[in-house]
Amino acid sequence: MIQSRTEERSSLHSATKKIPVTDKIPTTTTWLITTSSFSFKIIFINTNNVTLYKYCTSFSLANFLPLYKHTNPLPLSFFLLFRDITVFMAKSILVTGGAGYIGSHTVLQLLLGGYSIVVVDNLDNSSDIALKRVKELAGDFGKNLVFHQVDLRDKPALEKIFARTKFDAVIHFAGLKAVGESVQKPLLYFNNNLTGTITLLEVMASHGCKQLVFSSSATVYGCPKEVPCTEEFPLSAASPYGRTKLFIEGICCDIYRSDSEWKIILLRYFNPVGAHPSGHIGEDPRGIPNNLMPYVQQIAVGRRPHLTVYGTDYSTKDGTGVRDYIHVIDLADGHIAALRKLSDANIGCEVYNLGTGKGTSVLEMVAAFEKASRKKIPLVMAARRPGDAEIVYAATEKAERELNWKAKYGIDEMCRDQWNWAGKNPYGYGSSDSTN
């Protein structure tokens, strides 16, 4: 089915592109292209013999432009060339934990990609200020974001949200994530992360929403004996937090085995860093940071005196531990790729690593941040911590091949954006007298 109608504007994508085209389009026209597998719009605006492609994804634009030059008007056979391209527009997505670090960046990318988003977050370890800034960054697309302050364990509240909106899929970030705290408070982590997920899955099933992208973690690989880590590696977890991720992965696989209508993608993140290039949203941990880069940024703005480097005698280039750091924007884009993958008829329950496939040592990361910030980070060298892995980085071939996704940013861009966020927001979303 092909429909054409005049339209002044569309809210499909934030990027506006001016591209000269040899053929002329006499009026401002919207072509709505619908096939059995996807539906999206391409908008042409002809002004002074220059064609503007407005609110059109760069992916569809790149495939469309060379073909458009050879045919006008566009016959039905032309549109069949798009049948293998999966583009989701105006889909309704529930994002749990969407006010958090990775969640807020993903919500922004989804809004700019044309999705309608409902965020559920209890704000225990996040701030609604992040979502307010996401709305600002999204511009006109901000109106497609709705927020509910709800705990996933509150089943009646969750039922009301699902009764109000028919969701196409769910992205599940919500959960406690501090490894050290999980060792001290394991029951808190099992209750929050496992009970919340089970409640979410029950409500999804009762409302016929059986498409899920789950935020897992590379922590499920434990201390791998070799690298890079492939998705087929043996799984183990050294902390209650890691075990909650491992348990949830198992629950998701069991659900699919019991009901093949489910489509589930498990994304194993490595080490997210960086921030949105605008510097308006970024990582704002509560209390003492558990990860390297938020700790380093707090030293750079004067909130902490020095960085303790645990372990200087590893079998690495400089003796410090090596990890796979990935820009949070790359990670967010990985979720959009995962949502597209859910359209595959035979997706089942699949797992993908999201990383760069490159290892960077602690000292290399600190040096890159010092270069970006022009701040000296004082270091205190200490002995290894029990349970810390020596070298961990991802095998990314499966995600590159099946999700058509690949990390684009290097450590220089990661540190640049991390410092831009920290410099503009030295106390995160709070103030100097806040508890953050």
TrEMBL record:
First-tier enzyme category under EC: isomerase
Signal peptide: none
Domain NAD(P)-binding: 94-417
GO biological process per UniProt: galactose metabolic process
Pfam families associated with the record: GDP_Man_Dehyd
EC nos: 5.1.3.2
Keywords from the UniProt entry: Carbohydrate metabolism, Galactose metabolism, Isomerase, NAD
InterPro entries: NAD(P)-bd_dom (IPR016040), UDP_G4E (IPR005886)
CDD domains, alphabetized: UDP_G4E_1_SDR_e
GO cellular component assignments: cytosol
Keyword NAD applies: yes
UniProt key word NAD: yes
GO molecular function terms noted in the UniProt entry: UDP-glucose 4-epimerase activity
Reactions performed catalytically: UDP-alpha-D-glucose = UDP-alpha-D-galactose
Cofactor: NAD(+)
Family from the record: Belongs to the NAD(P)-dependent epimerase/dehydratase family.
Name of this chain's protein: UDP-glucose 4-epimerase
Species lineage: Eukaryota, Viridiplantae, Streptophyta, Embryophyta, Tracheophyta
